């Protein structure tokens, strides 16, 4: 079974008071999961906002005027990706403001989890593009810049997607064998 951003935690779908070792109602579980999503958002959102702030300032530096057309276009794409990442990572807070008091916390948690996943993907793309622009400018070697940027994006894919997927598969295998 593949993992999605809104996959319930193990034992979260038991319909009762949580999994083994947890005695929580569905509403308490939703509250706990919402707090977990908020903690994740705080980490990712801070990084996205700092990166976006630095990206915005680049346009006001003397070196920006000397960028070629590819690098200027890459910068524009990077800034747009950074703005989208920041907005997407902030969106769960807006959702909460609109939905608070309407007894929709489980739906809020599912939606927020998806948005965090999209926001992280946008953040990874922002970092990759920013790194490519930086390395093209700093090294003057476009080929090296592409290779190094691709290697970093490969590391992101490994540490953000592959390793968690492997841990999940191993845990699922242990549950079925044990």
UniProtKB/TrEMBL annotation:
Ranges of compositional bias, category Basic and acidic residues: 1-14, 21-30
InterPro entries registered for this protein in UniProt: DUF6328 (IPR046291), MFS_trans_sf (IPR036259)
Domain of life of the native organism: Bacteria
Membrane-spanning residues: 50-68, 74-95, 116-138, 144-163
Signal peptide boundaries: none
Protein name: DUF6328 family protein
Keyword Transmembrane: yes
The keyword Membrane belongs to this UniProt entry's keyword annotation: yes
Keywords, alphabetical: Membrane, Transmembrane, Transmembrane helix
Region described as Disordered: 1-30
């Amino acid at each position: 079974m593949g993992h999605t951003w809104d996959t319930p935690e193990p034992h979260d779908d038991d319909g009762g008071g949580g999994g083994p070792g947890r005695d929580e109602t569905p509403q308490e579980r939703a509250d706990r999961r919402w707090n977990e999503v908020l903690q994740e958002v705080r980490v990712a959102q801070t990084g996205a906002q700092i990166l976006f702030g630095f990206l915005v300032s680049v346009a006001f530096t003397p070196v920006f005027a000397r960028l070629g057309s590819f690098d200027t276009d890459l910068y524009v794409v990077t800034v747009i990706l950074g703005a989208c990442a920041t907005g997407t990572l902030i969106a769960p807070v807006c959702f909460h403001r609109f939905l608070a008091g309407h007894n929709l916390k489980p739906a809020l948690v599912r939606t927020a989890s998806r948005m965090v996943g999209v926001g992280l993907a946008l953040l990874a793309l922002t970092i990759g593009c920013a790194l490519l622009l930086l390395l093209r400018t700093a090294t003057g070697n476009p080929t090296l810049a592409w290779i190094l940027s691709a290697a970093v994006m490969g590391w992101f894919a490994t540490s953000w997607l592959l390793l968690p997927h492997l841990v999940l598969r191993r845990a699922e295998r242990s549950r079925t064998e044990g």
